[in-house]
Amino acid sequence: MIACDAHPEVRRDLDGIWDVIAEDSTAAANKVIAEILDRIDALVPFPHQGHKRLDLSSRPLRFINVREYLIAYAPDEKPLWVIAVMHGRRSPQVMAAILRGRE
Question: Which helix or strand (DSSP H or E) is residue 13 part of?
Answer without folding.
Answer: helix 9-22
